[in-house]
Amino acid sequence: MSILIYFAILILVPIWAQMRVKSAFKKYSQVPSSSRMRGAEVARKILDDNGLYHVGVEETRGVLSDHYDPRSKTVRLSSDNYHGHSVAAAAIASHEVGHAIQDQEDYSFLRFRHALVPVANLGSNFSWIFILIGIFAQMSNMLLLGIIFMAAGVVFQLVTLPVEFNASNRAMEQVVSAGIIRNDEERETKKVLDAAALTYVAAAAVAVMELVRLVLIYTGMNNDD
């Protein structure tokens, strides 16, 4: 029974976090910002205010597919946020610009996360192969190898948290100081940013829980030996 509850938590927590961010986005995408600036204009203004004239702003496909690409130095906004002039569009556009500012300032956690990308990708691709072989074949060494690979991905998830929270803090500072939102809109803007951050918190929590479970399985396997 307890194992069913555990897996239910693993499944439901990320779903709940995604529902929260979609709900917040849907609600505040219907609330126009006082400046009436489109997301693309918000991003461009904040970039220019910080001297990042070389960073581009582009429209990208998908819903909530917004991101900053450090390789091409481009802020990419989903269509709703690129063209929208809502509080949600301003919040998300400024958040992605926050990552561009981090990149410009050589923010340590962002650099660390970039360095972890190849290792995390390797871990996500191969960890479960070794884990499943280790569990079903009762080979503790294979399980340990899988745990090590998975741990790299967990570290990546944990390092992502300060990167995202810092970008959101920068976003709030920028939209307020630039006059993009009024003081009475700060609460709504923060709700959008907090909901988005919750998805990263949920992902990190689930990753840590699963890693701990596998470590306990490995310990039990060795104790049996």
TrEMBL record:
Entries under Pfam families matching the protein: Zn_peptidase_2
Source organism's superkingdom?
Bacteria
Family matches, as InterPro entries: Zn_peptidase_2
Name the keywords, alphabetized. Membrane, Transmembrane, Transmembrane helix
- Membrane-spanning intervals of the chain: 115-136, 143-163, 197-219
Write down what this protein is called.
Answer: Zn-dependent protease
Species name: Mesobacillus persicus
Q: What is the lineage of its organism?
A: Bacteria, Bacillati, Bacillota, Bacilli, Bacillales
